[in-house]
Write a structure and sequence with these properties.
The chain is α+β, with helices and mostly antiparallel strands. Helix content is about 20%, strand content about 45%. About 30% of the residues are buried.
């Protein structure tokens, strides 16, 4: 592990809401120069889940992402509140968004979603042993669900039809290691 070449002189919170905190850091960078550095601190961890049935099918969700201004196709995902294990969040989000209940989950990967400006961690789980439960969307969600072969979802990722980082990381890892 390399030594940290940055020196923090001061840091302060400049904005806070229930989901994020924006910090401003006064630093000396690796070249020895003064800089202001912004850091977005997420209060939740990002969690996604790839459901996979015994026939090789998966489910994607399409929803409007306010920050982007358009709809995106992605794996079921959400935020893991403080104190909730990411695996519990994965199971909960899967049922809330698709109505699917997973008998088994396994961690597929852990990522840092945009490590130049945020400390957010992301987790992607693979869910198997699926049965039908009840969809229970949050008031901020207007979701369309699509069942499709896993290889079609991977093809969408490769073609650029899926741009969400958790979805891309999880689907492309499955493409490499197999399901």
């Amino acid at each position: 592990m390399s030594k940290n070449p940055w020196k923090t002189l001061n840091q302060r919170s400049i904005y806070r809401n229930p989901w994020i905190e924006l910090e401003e850091h006064e630093v000396i960078n690796p070249a020895g120069n003064f800089n202001l550095y912004g850091k977005v601190c997420f209060k939740n961890q990002a969690v996604g889940v790839i459901p996979l049935d015994e026939y090789g099918n998966t489910w994607l969700v399409r929803q409007h992402r306010y920050t982007l201004g358009f709809d995106t196709w992605e794996i079921p995902e959400g935020g893991s509140p403080e104190g909730e294990a990411p695996e519990v969040t994965a199971v909960r989000e899967l049922e809330e968004e698709t109505g699917l209940i997973a008998a088994h989950t396994e961690l597929l990967l852990k990522i840092h979603t945009s490590n130049s400006v945020t400390d957010e961690e992301g987790f992607v789980y693979l869910a198997r042993g699926l049965s039908q439960g009840t969809v229970s969307l949050e008031e901020t969600e207007d979701i369309t669900t699509r069942k499709l072969p896993l290889e079609d979802a991977i093809a969408m990722a490769v073609a650029g039809e899926i741009t969400d980082s958790l979805s891309l990381a999880g689907l492309l890892k499955l493409a490499i290691i197999g399901s």
